[in-house]
Specification:
The protein is α/β, with parallel strands linked by helices and about 500 residues long. Helix content is about 35%, strand content about 10%.
């Protein structure tokens, strides 16, 4: 029996509402344009330790998707802007993309959404005419794989497609994009998906020439005389974030679409900026994200849609220090590239919850690192880097196994644990990597390990290690043994005898 059209549309609307009826979530974007990117497994371990349930990837990196296998984390993957033209023109390309990047990982990896491009209309406008075709081709490929009810498809849009977002009640999409946006909204309605919005109060504040107070952008309470009210609806807006989301709802309504949920795929605040970016500070970033989390987790929608929670992804997990542009572009992360927290942040919104931190990160030598480079790194760490290398001396807990990778790992980690708060990195000319696995073993406790004090792994802060009676740093004698294996036993025996007298 063929169901009436109104029944099918009503069923899809119900699905979309139910999809957003659960408790609102805070997710996080994971950019990769940074030096010394942590391994996928370490990233997943960090996310799990902080009970982060949703992440957005900007592509469909196979290593990341494999790392998310057998976790409960919901993953949004991305079709890159460079892939849209081919996928929009050729259904076979869309099918191949879905088979390779989605179907191949489900059900082990919990992929629940596909973001087709990022801010396509404003960054690559020449692709806009084919965006709807790309969305439809991806959806049809999901249908063919019987994944269309599990995986939703949409395309993140910039606030720039709404040229006048305040007051929200009069907001409309730019007329130049009406055809493409209408096609997008029709697709979202037909498939029970959601409108993806990148909403940045930071830019709303910095480009408004003082019209809005900073407190309004930071979710801070405003005095009665400064409260923001929509003159047409008399709705009060306690934050610019809410006003931006409502602007999207009213813009959709202007095209006769309603009840398509808005999911904020990007929002955040930079912690540092150039001389002309005075609002980009650690204090403002911490305030914004802390208040954002509390706002989202109260499970309410914006004033015009109070019953539709605003699921939100924070931009972003790491500072992407390789990005070009203003200083602020490299400082949106809640973690530095070396894994340390930019500021304390509880992603669960509770004051008693553990804040996102890097206390479980260690720095170790890469398994495939060149031995000569490891020797150089070890020399630097125990010398100029002022790492405490006493534990890797003969007879000490971390001396065995007596090989350069083991000794370099201990020295690298000691330096990293002591210097990361001051910007020290875990790189050492590409020979080091961070890990969440505690590298301690037997009686050798690495600096930063929970057992370090009880097992003697954390030695008194003698930055250069024990001083040899022969002069200089005793570590240098051990290091030289990696290059001179024939003389190593003799040198080490002499060293032990000297240290006994």
């Amino acid at each position: 029996m063929l169901l009436p059209r109104w029944f099918a549309e009503g069923f899809l609307l119900l699905l979309s509402i139910l999809a957003c009826s659960d408790a609102a979530f805070i997710g996080v974007n994971i950019g990769t344009d940074l030096t010394n990117m942590p391994s996928p497994s370490d990233i997943v371990t960090l996310l799990q330790s902080q009970q982060i349930t949703h992440v957005r990837l900007y592509d469909a990196n196979s290593h990341m998707l494999k790392a998310f296998a057998n976790t409960s984390i919901e993953v949004m993957v991305g079709v890159t802007n460079d892939e849209i033209l081919k996928i929009g023109r050729f259904p076979s390309a869309a099918a191949a993309w879905v088979n390779k990047n989605v179907a191949a990982y489900i059900p082990s990896t919990n992929i629940t959404a596909i973001a087709v491009g990022s801010e396509v209309l404003t960054t690559i406008p020449h692709v806009a005419p084919i965006l709807a075709s790309a969305l439809n081709n991806i959806h049809k490929a999901l249908v063919a794989s019987n994944l269309n009810f599990k995986v939703k498809v949409s395309s993140p849009m910039s606030m720039d497609i709404m040229p006048k977002p305040f007051p929200p009640s009069t907001s409309t999409f730019s007329p130049s994009w009406n055809t493409t946006v209408y096609q997008l909204l029709q697709f979202l309605k037909n498939t029970g998906s959601f409108f993806m919005l990148n909403a940045y109060p930071y830019y709303g504040y910095t480009t408004a020439n003082g019209i809005f107070p900073l407190d309004y952008a930071l979710f801070k309470q405003l005095s009665p005389v400064k409260q923001i009210v929509d003159p047409n609806t008399l709705l009060h807006y306690n934050s610019m974030f809410d006003a931006m989301v409502d602007a999207a709802y009213y813009s959709m309504e202007a095209l006769n679409f309603s009840k398509i949920p808005v999911v904020v795929t990007e929002t955040g605040w930079p912690s540092s900026g150039g001389s002309d970016e005075a609002a980009a500070t650690v204090a403002n970033a911490e305030t914004f994200n802390t208040n954002l989390i509390k706002r989202v987790l109260n499970n309410s929608g914006p004033p015009s849609q109070p019953d539709i929670p605003i699921n939100t992804y924070i931009y972003e997990l790491y500072n992407e220090d390789k990005r070009s542009g203003p200083v602020s572009e490299r400082n949106w992360g809640i973690l530095f590239p070396n894994g340390t927290s930019v500021y304390p942040l509880s992603l669960s919104g509770g004051s008693n919850s553990a804040a996102l931190n890097d206390s479980s990160l260690f720095c170790v030598a890469k398994a495939d690192a060149d031995d000569d480079k490891l020797v150089d790194g070890l020399n630097w760490a125990c010398g100029q880097g002022r790492a405490n290398c006493a534990a890797i001396q003969p007879g000490q807990p971390c001396y065995l196994p007596n090989d350069v990778k083991s000794h370099a790992s201990f020295a690298y980690n000691d330096y990293y644990q002591k210097m990361k708060s001051a910007g020290g990195t875990c790189d050492f000319d590409g020979t080091a990597i961070t890990t969440t696995r505690d590298p301690s073993y037997r009686t050798c406790a690495y600096t930063g390990s929970l057992n370090a004090n009880s097992t003697g792994g954390n030695f008194p802060p003698n930055a250069l290690g024990p001083v040899s009676p022969l002069g200089g740093n005793a570590n240098a004698l051990i290091i030289s043994s990696y290059h001179l294996p024939f003389l190593a036993p003799l040198a080490l025996t002499l060293l032990q005898l000297l240290l006994q007298h």
